[in-house]
Design brief:
Helix 1 packs across helix 7 and helix 4 packs parallel to helix 5. The chain is globular. The longest helix has 23 residues. By secondary structure, it is α/β, with parallel strands linked by helices. Helix 1 links the parallel strand 1 and strand 2. The protein has a single domain, classed as NAD(P)-binding Rossmann-like Domain (Rossmann fold), CATH 3.40.50.720. It has a 7-stranded parallel sheet with strand order 3-2-1-4-5-6-7, sandwiched between helices.
Length: about 250
């Protein structure tokens, strides 16, 4: 995980990262803090782990806090966005990272799996963005975290997850158009195979997955975080409605 360093292009900004207690979310939270942003991250279960991310950021001189919330709980999620803005005094950046990763044969996926996936992967980003823009001034950033499978599903069992992540393309484009007059940008980052607990780079299917990428290896969470930080910073001010694939060439 990155440490907070000097040269902070996001100094004075406040970011909310949903699902920021581990994996890509934790890397994003750390990178935004490194760039100078105060960070609020949400987590659902592992309080100790989220506290560890906060401690690393604050120990390196940054500002951070963690809020427990289930992104499938619409009321609690909106309250968490408002709490983040109230705690830090403003809100400039929203990273919709929390996700449900439910896989299985199409004929065996039930209504419960469907409802959870849509609640977390589609409804939650919509509602979080809706709540966040009430606090954002010109220059605000909304960055959605999608998935490479929205563009290329090479394995069976991904129908539900791919459907939910494909919805982020439409949300990102439409919100980019709608919020443009307010100088709020909205973009989508689609990670490819990334070395996390859910999908380790040394897992049983890693060799096959690597064969689908042009670069032949997994990303590190920091690679995804770097793209998010660029879009959140001054270099991303004229980019909106765009999809950035951080996938090692998985979709080409």
């Amino acid at each position: 995980m990155d440490k907070v360093l000097d040269g902070k292009v996001l100094d004075g900004k406040v970011a909310l990262v949903t699902g920021g207690g581990r994996g890509i979310g934790a890397a994003v939270a750390a990178r935004l803090a490194r760039e100078g942003a105060a960070v609020v991250l949400t987590f659902q279960r592992d309080e100790a782990r989220a506290a560890g991310v906060v401690a690393e950021i604050t120990g390196a001189g940054g500002r951070a806090a963690a809020v427990r919330v289930d992104s499938a709980d619409a009321v609690a999620l909106v309250a968490a966005v408002d709490e983040a803005a109230a705690r830090m005094g403003r809100l400039d950046i929203l990273v919709n990272n929390a996700g449900a990763f439910l896989l299985g044969p199409f004929g065996e996926l039930g209504r419960a799996e469907f409802d959870e996936t849509v609640a977390v992967n589609v409804r939650a980003p919509f509602l979080a963005a809706q709540a966040a823009v009430r606090h954002m001034a010109a220059g605000g950033r909304i960055i959605n975290i999608g998935s490479n499978v929205a563009e290329r599903a090479v394995f069976p069992g991904f129908a539900l997850y791919a459907m939910s992540k494909t919805a982020m393309i439409g949300l990102t484009k439409a919100l980019g158009r709608e919020l443009g007059p307010r100088a709020i940008t909205v973009n989508l980052v689609n990670p490819g195979p990334t070395d996390t607990e859910l999908n380790p780079a040394d897992g049983p299917n890693a060799a096959v997955v690597n064969g689908f990428t042009a670069l032949g290896h997994y990303a590190e969470p920091a690679d995804v975080a770097a793209a998010v930080a660029f879009l959140a910073g001054p270099g991303g001010r004229y980019i909106t409605g765009a999809t950035v694939n951080v996938d090692g060439g998985f979709t080409i």
